[in-house]
Amino acid sequence: MNEGHHVVIIGGGFGGLYATQSLKRMPFVVTLVDQRNFHLFQPLLYQVATGWLSPANIASPLRGVLKRQKNASVVLAEVTDIDVGNRRVILSEKTIGYDTLIVAAGSRLHYFGNDHWEVLAPSLKTVEDATEIRARIFLAFEAAEFETAPKKRGALLTFVIVGGGSTGVELAGALGEIAKDTLRNDFRNIDTGDASILLIEGAERILPAYPPKLSAKAQMFLQRLGVTIRINATVIDIQPDEVAIKRGETLEHVPCHTVLWAAGVQASPLGKILAHATGARLDRGGRIFVESDLSLPNHPEIFVIGDLANYPHQTGRPLPGIAPVAIQQGRYVANVLRDRIEKKSRRPFRYKDRGNMAIVGRASAVADLGKFRFSGFLAWLAWLFIHLVNLIEFENKVLVLIQWAWYYFTRNRGARLITGDKRTHFKAC
Amino acid sequence: MNEGHHVVIIGGGFGGLYATQSLKRMPFVVTLVDQRNFHLFQPLLYQVATGWLSPANIASPLRGVLKRQKNASVVLAEVTDIDVGNRRVILSEKTIGYDTLIVAAGSRLHYFGNDHWEVLAPSLKTVEDATEIRARIFLAFEAAEFETAPKKRGALLTFVIVGGGSTGVELAGALGEIAKDTLRNDFRNIDTGDASILLIEGAERILPAYPPKLSAKAQMFLQRLGVTIRINATVIDIQPDEVAIKRGETLEHVPCHTVLWAAGVQASPLGKILAHATGARLDRGGRIFVESDLSLPNHPEIFVIGDLANYPHQTGRPLPGIAPVAIQQGRYVANVLRDRIEKKSRRPFRYKDRGNMAIVGRASAVADLGKFRFSGFLAWLAWLFIHLVNLIEFENKVLVLIQWAWYYFTRNRGARLITGDKRTHFKAC
Fold it and tell me: CB–CB of B38 and A418 under 8 A?
């Protein structure tokens, strides 16, 4: 580790992993630090949460991915601090010196100052979140089957999803299909088709990042699946058996046992640490403003990429916190480092926007590929194809493809297991 | 639920599920009660614990399996008591009356009066156990990579498996392959091939239920994988960083961080409740002595099957607590019930022993099929085939087959995720 230029990368998500891999044949010693021993393919996490795929299908052990990259090693540890002056990353039990630091620590879900909502309305960021949400969804149906009081049963069969971005839309669509198709003949006392699924969005349409026409399409697809959409609406209170929703002057109290949070995002706390140490500025979401080569002002040896970076140099607004941005930034930084060694200069980072896609149901999706905007079955196929191609391991591509095909033909979600410690606490959910 | 003869079945394992399914076209109303919403294919659980398969691959949602069986319903609940006098099963929040009761509540692992060992030496019974053991195994390698003191590193790379039955042998073989093959190039500071794996067996050979020749074969296969076998040995103490093993007069202290328990088994506590209520006798393992038709003495309306039953009528000794016994007993009881309605009598239950098989490694197993006893690659293929055929859902058959094939060719275990709450507590493992 002491020979050569040492690049330390914090975070094994899309930004960090692609940066590591791009440094493969370059004259650097690379250390990738992550709290988890796997890279998680976030865009498919909602499919784990809805009992379609297994966690391992979308997670790739980092050591396995990098086993043949001789200049890279993996450290499984939590970063507690960054000592910018002495160029050291502080872990819980040791420190690692760096010549160059790439911080790709990502973001977490954010409850807008209502952190106590997290217990009542879990969000979807980790594998554990996904299996917890999966347990809550399927336990709610179990509890409804068991419940004889119609009012309580109704609350158990009500699902509120907060946030109409792509995660919220995908969760709502999947829930609609679970109620209408997957569980249709599973129960004897309830009709799962009676479940009501509410999607709450603060803006005036769902998928606000998409062109209005595609938002309308997505809305239509969701409504066909029985999802009720509330736009211009905010959740102002969450209780174990009720959600309060405000629209303009109207306040609605919805009896409900299962709330899923897909609304706010906040950058990793490492942003604050870095800002404090380097004098870099933070935006309201906790993201750090980076230079046009993704380094920090006055600290050319520190780069910030992915969800943690605010890169305003292209459009005046920050780039969205999505996988393609992080991937392109990871690759870009690797090239900057090589160019520096070769004394070349590199043009500012430019994000190539290849478009946005969200899946709405079993055979429908919306796609905005810039020139091409389409929806329905074709968009769904394109969505499947692009996600399959980008999955890291070949084994996972095969396993996911089979489970998708299986679901397409049978509408069966084989992974609807209720697991975890709270598995028998029906009434607590 | 109030029409017709009501059969309540406690437990959705092999015995309970096969009993339920065998009652399909018979004039009964069937209720299957289980604490979990899925049937678990126990024989493959060690493959989840060793990062080969995902939990959902070997778990089948009970409601899904029974969705087309109109006379059956599933109740997800814990049985707290059985009211034999009033023929009622008491659940945590309601009661269910029965005309006939089939108790197939199975067994749990047993620490011979050392229940405090459970935290230090988890056993393999539930999906949660499997993911916990998986996390411990792979965290131990991570911690060893991080550790610089050679002695501590050695302890982190030492794995002790207590119990040389088929689960212990399968775990030991899998651990050998993880160390020698799967992780071979994953680490930079340690050579995972240095890991020492100890298999502790109290009897004079491993796999004592098999013919001596096959035990010897299994021992040879394991030794090739670098597993050290201690026979006539007992674990007398487990500490977080040390295990005390007694052989005759010798006491050995093995520095070790990861201990897996595959030794004793104790029947479900429902056995005690039933014995108390009906006057039936229990054996030392908590199993209930049943009549030759698997019912309880003086209680022809109560049957006990599977691991919870002690059936001595065939060989004078209890039948082993394995899946084929439970399956055959479940089917038998369904036939007894039909015969009773048709006023026919049925001969006593007889277990047809089709043999025993244990897998030892990537291409080796031992099989004792009565007339045929073989080992090696052919036994391994037979093992794979039989387990694949018996997996409940078609989708799982395909997914498992692909993962087995993948492993066979690449020796890669794709599901080696470290998940769960304690994921960052390296030093605690």
Answer: yes
Which among B379, B99, B328, B407 has a CA at the least distance from the CA of B221? B379
Q: Cα(B386)–Cα(B351) distance, rounded to whole angstroms?
A: 18
Residues of chain B with pLDDT under 70: 1-2, 421-429
* Chain A residues touching residue B397 (CB < 8 angstroms): none
A5-35+77-106+268-341 adopts what CATH topology?
A: FAD/NAD(P)-binding domain (3.50.50)
Tell me which residue in A56, A146, A187 faces B63 most closely, judged by beta carbons: A187
Each domain of chain A, given as residue ranges in start order, spans: 5-35+77-106+268-341, 114-261+355-428
Q: What percent of chain B has pLDDT over 90?
A: 79
B3 to B6, B27, B30, B71, B340: CA distances (angstroms): 8, 10, 11, 11, 18
Instruction: Specify whether the CB–CB gap between A62 and A21 falls below 8 A.
Output: no
Question: For position B425, what pLDDT does the model report?
Answer: 41
The one-letter code for the residue type at B325 is: V
Q: Distance from B399 to chain A by nearest Cα, in Å? A: 6
ipTM of predicted assembly, 2 dp: 0.89
Local structure of residue A107 (DSSP, 8 states): E
Do A5-35+77-106+268-341 and A114-261+355-428 have matching folds? yes
Q: Are the C-beta atoms of A192 and A175 separated by less than 8 Å?
A: no
Closest CA to A101 of A181, A32, A41, A159: A32
User: A122 with A260: CB under 8 angstroms?
Assistant: yes
Pair type for strands A258-261 and A158-162:
parallel
**CATH class, B110-265+355-428 region:** alpha beta
Closest partner residue to B67 (CB to CB) among A127, A138, A185 is A185
Architecture of the domain spanning A114-261+355-428: 3-Layer(bba) Sandwich (3.50)
Q: Of these residues, B132, B142, B147, B170, which one is catalytic?
A: B170
Looking at the complex, report in whole angstroms how far the Cα of residue A386 sits from the nearest Cα belonging to chain B: 21
Nearest CA to B263 out of B368, B123, B80 is that of: B123
Q: Cβ separation of B412 and A64 shorter than 8 Å?
A: yes
For residue A35, what is the nearest residue in chain B, using CA coordinates?
B424
**A37 vs B188: CB contact, 8 Å cut-off?**
no
Confidence of residue A415 (pLDDT cuts 50, 70, 90): confident
Based on its alpha-carbon atoms, the radius of gyration of chain B, rounded to whole angstroms, reads: 22
B252 is catalytic: no
Annotated catalytic residue, options A170, A177, A201, A393 = A170
